[in-house]
Amino acid sequence: MAPPILSLTEVVAGFISPPLFSGLTIDVGKTDRIALVGRNGTGKSTLLKMMAGFVESDGGTRFVQPGTRISYLSQTVNFTSYTTLQEFVASGLAADQSDATYLADALLFEVGLTPERQTSGLSGGEARRASVARALVGDPDVLLLDEPTNHLDIAIIEWLEETLAGFRGAIVTVSHDRAFLRRLSRAILWLDRGRVHRHERGFATFDDWSETLLAQEAESSAKLDKLIADETKWSHEGISARRTRNQGRLRRLGDLRKERQNRPKTQNMVELRTDSSQRSGRLVSELVQVSKSYGDKVIISDFSTRLMRGDRVGIIGPNGVGKTTLLKLMSGDLAPDGGSIRLGTNLEPLIFDQNRDTLDPEASLWDTLADSGGDSISVLGEPRHVVGYLRDFMFDPKQARSPVKSLSGGEKNRLLLAKHLARPSNLLILDEPTNDLDMETLDLLQEMLADYKGTIILVSHDRDFIDRVVTSTIVLQSNGVITEYAGGYSDYLLQKKQSQSLTTEQKQKQKKAENKTADSTFLKRSGRMSFKDKRELELLPERMANLETEITKLNLKLSKTDPSTAVIVELSGKLGRLSNELSQCEERWLVLEEMQQE
Q: Rounded to an integer, what distance in angstroms lies between the CA atom of residue 134 and that of residue 85?
């Protein structure tokens, strides 16, 4: 085995109490691809900063092979020393590359930025793209990446994956993006309760491997508890007769108890729950030929869609293309420039905004939850003490009186979850909910959404999360064009590829067939309701429910099917047909409902 080019030996992070970790040893080889994973707050970012040399450990040593160049991508960046993006990115060049500013310019163009752009007034996504360019520009030997996909849109994430796949040096990545880690990692470092475990396989194996380690730990703990119980029983029953010769055994019992006391404690978040039992009307939101512009920039052009109760819609597209605008239009929080929007009845929306605007940075965690005063909060109709409820979301009771501004990004998102999930809803509007959340919290959130009985609108760049949650995907393009696809992100890619392979003649035939369907008597309305219409109105809800069940089963089957197999095409085609039939039924149901009301 080749010697490491970067290593930490017996390092300690003891600047807080209790220490984040102690006695950790990590080696990085010259071509390693390592995923550094663990819960929020376990010290992943601190460990990465120690590798980069930006944080001194309280013990242990750091070794860097002479001549090794290390580049570090932080979660936060300070542009105050730089006027233009060219200056900022060029600062990442090595000393012997100082005159090669053309490299900085080339990378900036690749991530969609111009070298002359001022560093002031950058959006979160623009700042992140510039930081990625700076990390890559010097062609380092080791890349240390802390949440590299945060605030990036899917197109840039996929560009970054391709770029890193061809990178010749070592990579250590902290990320919550499962798809990103599956693509790029060949080894795992799991930081868990102050200890680090290494596995020489890619991230795709993490769940099974970590569950095996936890099961072994539980078995070892059970054996230790039994041994302590047996030794304690012996000490109570026979110690007086053998006091002198069994002092060693008593000391061993004391050591066993000390070992149990020092054993890492597992702290788990509670299962996330929300009350979605209050049903909304069948129609949640309908957009008809909606348009929206800001100045000369067209965001949405002549877009129509219908959101029905129980739908799970994902919205994706480049940063700045208008995803949040569409979200606000669908929820009725924004008026269109043209077209019409109709909202359903009995809606109880719950909005999770990406900027955390509902959190007052100066307020304490206590006051944020108990905003009506007192020491309790109503959680789904039941009173809970604030501190106990905070503990459910893995907050230390000492943090209860701390200001929100003292929290990390992941902690702020957990606090938002705690605040929002305390009240019932039947419409979840989630704008980038996965930012800064660790994988365990993401899994709990995904499980909660799977059981949610209401309607979900999700904006996210997390491809894995989209695939797990949504049943249809709305894709926005930079020219105001919007297209809707059945299924999640992977289904969208497959359908887009199939659509591109169609000939012009096939596309024309398909368009004619769609127009014919839209003009069919099935969708037409007449002035009065006949007996047949009334009977149809009674039967349609059951038919739509059956179609929704079939679509759910088909989506589940698609998620478990290898995308490279031929059967995926057949399943996707069937999914498209069922989705079209459901849309027609919903259209007809709305027509009949209006006729009945009139």
A: 9
